[in-house]
Amino acid sequence: MKSKLIIYLVLVTMIACNGGKSTQHHHDEHVLHGPEGMVILTKRQIDALGLQLGTIQQRNLTTLVKTTGELEVPPSAEADISAVIGGNVKSINVFPGDKVSKGQVLAVLEHPDYISLQEDFIEVAGQLNFLEQEYRRQKELYEKNVASGKDFQKVETDYKILKARFEGLKARLQLLNLSPEAVINGIISPTVTVISPLNGYVNKINVRLGTYVNTSDVLFGVTDNSHLHADFHVYEKDIHLLKEGQKVTFSVAGNPKEEYTATIFAIGKELDAETRFIHVHAHIDNHFHSLLPGMFISGSIQTDTIFTDCLPNDAVVKDGTKAYIFVLDESVNTKSLLEHDHHEDEHTDEATTEHEDEPLYALRMVEVVVGKVSGGFTEIKPMEKLPEDSKVALNNAYYLLADLKKEETSHEH
């Protein structure tokens, strides 16, 4: 119906331009009767339809796998930060969204237990210093057979136990970001700091001033967005098309017009039993501050690519189970067609005169096998060998087929 309307409008326009002659209407509705499977058009009809002629092209066509997913960061780029030892929050030094560096102080805690820990360390350090000297003395006497082995073994055992305790207290101080050397020198701190273990952005703060926090409480969350990547969900039927290094074009749900690219670096090895998809991870080619973890995304994975003959999608038309293109056949003797039409047409003189001054184009329908469809182009394989420089209708193949069928119907009547 649509094709008939367009052809009708084209003919009406051409009639108007020529004064509405009835004989012109008769010949523009169908210029000449060509051989079966061929459309004959005048130059004016070609122009009115906007029909473009060109050669079959060779292009890279890619199979696209549609996919959805979300933006994520790897586990090593996220941190939930807690207190090593419980305490009261004395100060909070950051706000949600702040950019922080590794080692930067996020908060300060205070508690009497911190002081007690440092006092214990000083005491043990003093005892260890004395016991170490005694151990060395007993060892020397034992080696000279002056002291008994029993006395030496007792001193050695006490020394090792105390040294282990010293190292344990030292490690606890270091976990609290306190300097063991400063403590030994008598510098006691009533506070400890909570620091960021990585570069990133503060995404959550779960504390308030004065709150007592336990070691199990998550105080802060920090995320390093520089390691942001795309986690796509690919269904079972498309898994065989995937491989590392393939490109993905995607957009975020909140801004579908903005496109980004990524490169696949890891393909999941386990299929989800319920959803029947695997996780496919891709590095985002360029870092954008507008992209954030948790955003929903959709895109296309560019899988296998072939270099093949193809035409614009509008140049290929299907009729039932078969597909066709229209090829310009310059071997057709349009003059003989004109003479044949001259004998059959009741408006011979006027129609013939109109056509003799106007070039005619014979477009022959050729069956093709279609392959991949990508980026507005369709892979084709003609069922007959065509010359390399063959001219083909690059658009409006649907309307040419409709006109051909209209002609066949008129012949039947």
TrEMBL record:
Top-level division of the source organism's lineage: Bacteria
Record organism: Thermophagus xiamenensis
Keywords: Transport
Full protein name: Membrane fusion protein, cobalt-zinc-cadmium efflux system
Every CzcB-like barrel-sandwich hybrid domain range: 79-224
GO BP: copper ion export; plasma membrane copper ion transport
Residues annotated as domain CusB-like beta-barrel: 232-303
Family statement: Belongs to the membrane fusion protein (MFP) (TC 8.A.1) family.
GO molecular function, one term: transmembrane transporter activity
An example Gene Ontology CC term for this record: cell envelope
Gene3D superfamilies with a match to the protein in the record: 2.40.30.170, 2.40.50.100, Helix hairpin bin
NCBIfam families cross-referenced by the UniProt entry: RND_mfp
